[in-house]
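Methods — Computational structure assignment.
A single polypeptide chain was analysed. Its primary sequence is given first, followed by the predicted tertiary structure written as structure tokens.
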Amino acid sequence: MNDKSKNSHIAVLGCGAWATTIANHIASQAIQTRIWCHREEVVTQINSQTRSLLPGISLSHYLEASLDCKEVVQGASAIILCVPARYLESVIKHWEPSYHKDQPVLSLIKGIFSEKYLLIEAYLKAIFPDINYTLLSGPNLALEIAQGKPAASVVASRNKKSQMIFQDLLSNEQLRIYRSDDVEGVAMGGIIKNIMAIAAGCIDAMELGVNTKSTLITRGLREMIECGKSLGAETKTFYGLSGLGDLIATSVSPLSRNYQCGYTLGKGKTATEFETSLSAVAEGIQSTRFIYTYSRERDIIMPITEMVYNVLQQSVSIQDAINQLMTRDLKSE
């Protein structure tokens, strides 16, 4: 795949800010890229080389949007999946009739579909047993990538060839891609950092300062590691781009939707009010519920996750949650 432009088209399913950014990133390398959208006004925007979610960004003329999922998927050399986890089942109904098992699939989803399927890979393999699955995760705020600011990320797969296919497809002077075999670790980093980003937004809304934020990131990383290890993840993965790297990015940037959600909570509104006001999804809301349940069932100690869950459920105030965290039994680090 040295000459990327010789590939047949790339299919992207999803049309949010991150999906459009990745589609445009690929198309900007003179690769024909088709993106599936479910709203006509978004198709019109993209085909006019603009996207309201990416202000100031001119999209490549190699990028084409369509309402027809079959047209997007059929004949594609690879499929990129970038939709909120909660909508995955409905998206598959559109995608499945045109999908061929020889098409490698790259997931950009950093959420959980259901309590039964903690990882997106497990859910997709239950439907497509022969799927060639890879995921991408890292500190990748969509607008910054769209603006061409330097960044790095990780592709993880059990298939070495797939790792290299997507590493080659996505790497250029602005985005450097690394490979990993640790699917569980890369996936859990992307999931749990969203929970911590909600907490980070609360901290900034309440003006609690840098010491509090650094404590959150450090102890949040510990929860990420402990939860990941229960799934067989490698500890070293969480110190890399898809773990600590993504945790830092989403905990300090107002561009992070989960951070925005936490900030809204810190100003006295609810998570439902946040999602309704933006007509958008913060993956961390649903992930918090699933990870909280998972950790309780397995006696994994995740006090920050527990407090974020309680705040989202409105069973405690943010200040009470902080007090409970600060007055836990003392122990060694």
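Note: Strands lie at 10-13, 33-36, 63-66, 78-81, 105-107, 133-137, 151-157, 175-180.
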